[in-house]
Amino acid sequence: MKRLSGLDASFLYLETPILHMHVSMAAVFDPSTVSGGYSFDKVRDLVSSRLSLAPVFRRKLVEVPFRLGHPYWVDDPAFDITYHLRRVALPVPGNLAQLAEMVGDICSRQLDRSKPLWEMYVVEGLEGGNIALITKIHHATIDGVSGAELLTELFDLEPDPPPRKPVSPPDTDGAVPSGMALVTQALAARLVRPVEVTKLAWRTGRAVLDVRRIRQGPGAGRAALPLTAPRTSINASITGRRKVVFASTSLDDAKRLKRAMGTTVNDVVLAVCAGALRQFLLVGNELPDQPLVATVPVSVQPSTHQVPGSNKISAMWVALPSHIADPLERLAAIHDSTKDAKQEHQALGADVLQDWAEHATPNLFSAAVRAYTRLKLAEHHRPIYTLIVSNVPGPDFPLYFGGAEMVAGFPLGPIMDGAGLNITVMSYRGVLNWGIMACPDALPGVGDIASGIPTALDELMQAAGLGPATLAGIAPGPPPRGRSRKTGARASSRPART
User: Fold this and answer.
1) Torsions phi, psi for 54 (to 5 deg)
2) Residue numbers annotated as active site
3) Are 115 and 83 within 8 A, CB to CB?
4) What are phi and psi of 462, to 5 degrees?
5) Residues of the chain with CATH 3.30.559.30
6) What is the pLDDT of residues 176-224, one digit of tens each?
7) Which residue from 189, 298, 307, 445 lies 20 to 30 Å from 90 (Cα-Cα)?
8) Phi and psi at residue 390, to the nearest 5°
């Protein structure tokens, strides 16, 4: 039995009927490399045999009575692989757009907290005989980096690897401490909380003063701040529905651009987002004259790796100057903003978020989040931020799942009320794969943002004199019939507010 860290538990407290705190990935595989041919039974046997290598797949939550403390992970004695691993199929022609539609439907439903918090869907019927694997895992279990590491337990570096050394399952009878024991532990932890909070407050105060000194220094202050984002159609209250779209661009193009302009690949990713959002907002007649604000998750520094919990992340705020017409000026401004944001993030301390989350009160936290969403308060104050943009490095070599070669992998992160757009990027074998999550009721035109991503990269490449952008990735195919954003629709009828 293991208690969740405050940061891990906060993803549980944030969850409401419209806020789903799971992270997902859709990976496409070519089964022609499977020895003896593909079958679902082979996949099920593989996943079952690898579960012992990743114990997180077998653990479930146990709540402290009255929610007096953070919950615990325990091994599930009634674990059933057939509940978590499911088999589905796409209709003909089985293109990437249809797969994205299926992923959006799967991500629209919350995970059952009475069971281990993950699901996998093996998708058959893709074009060219391909298959796909859709994973959905609660954020309380993993962050983006640890999620990628976790999936490596299922993947191999060759189609016919030698058998992995089996790991003995945990020696447990599924028993957990009594409710009284859990309450006693929670109350004991509360006795020392005032002292710990006082120390943390002093440490945080010093860190804030350090950040203030940086902001007052020469040439500083280019990092964005929360609650400074202009309001756009992205910043509306959301529902529980999710829509997913995919895009792919060349990683080599991004590297050529970053070398030519003296930036980083992450700066290029952010600049591409800024360009795609600029076009989207222009079409909707709502382009603000101020920078948008991106929340960028970052992995913590090595000094905080010993902090308990599965999530080792913090966040920084970066300005996306979509109002600047020149694409290279936008890239330069983003480079300056990320440089300052990193400096301020280091001054504040990567572990501050984790330490404060450790002292979160479950009942108060959950009640506040539910009131915020129920009252649609996101529409009554300046947006905290515009969207989330996350860049996860992936391997530059092929991966295999049950002998099937991975063709592409699209990561997906959660959206929040009042900021209904998440763009997560993962590199794989020279391609940047973009997974875009949105609420279709709040942002029906998210497909236009996805189609603008290759265009935005091409614009940057041409402006830098590097020639046209290279086509990369799997052709998405025509989108499923449904609602799309048009000029004059809901978004365009709302004037931009700054």
Assistant:
1) -135, 85
2) 139
3) yes
4) -65, -40
5) 193-391+414-463
6) 666 666 667 665 565 555 555 565 566 666 655 555 666 666 655 577 8
7) 445
8) -130, 135
What local confidence, expressed as pLDDT, does residue 165 receive? 74
- The whole-angstrom separation of Cα 249 and Cα 222 is 28
Is 482:276 a contact under the CB 8 Å cutoff? no
The class of domain 193-391+414-463 in CATH terms is: alpha beta
Name the segment(s) of the chain with CATH classification 3.30.559.10.
2-180
Give the integer Cα–Cα distance in Å for 496 and 498: 7
CA-CA distance, 456 to 461, in Å (whole number)?
A: 9
Please give the distance of CA 62 from its chain centroid, rounded to a whole number.
25
Q: In angstroms, rounded to a whole number, what is the distance separating the alpha carbons of residues 172 and 82? A: 21
Length of the chain: 498
| 207-212: Cβ within 8 A, 24+ apart | 207/347, 207/348, 207/349, 207/352, 208/348, 210/347, 210/348, 211/344, 211/347, 211/348
CB 434 within 8 A of CB 423: yes
Burial class (CB in 10 A: 0-12, 13-18, 19+), 225: middle
pTM comes to: 0.87
CATH topology assigned to domain 2-180: Chloramphenicol Acetyltransferase (3.30.559)
What's the pLDDT tens digit per position in 37-72?
Answer: 999 999 999 999 888 788 888 999 998 887 778 899
Strand partners, 425: 391, 434
Strand order in the sheet with 404-412: 85-89, 118-124, 131-138, 22-30, 404-412, 400-401
Q: Which of 249, 284, 246, 285 lies closest to 269 in space, CA to CA?
A: 249
Q: What region, left, alpha or beta, does residue 152 occupy, with left being phi > 0 and alpha being psi -120 to 50 degrees?
A: alpha
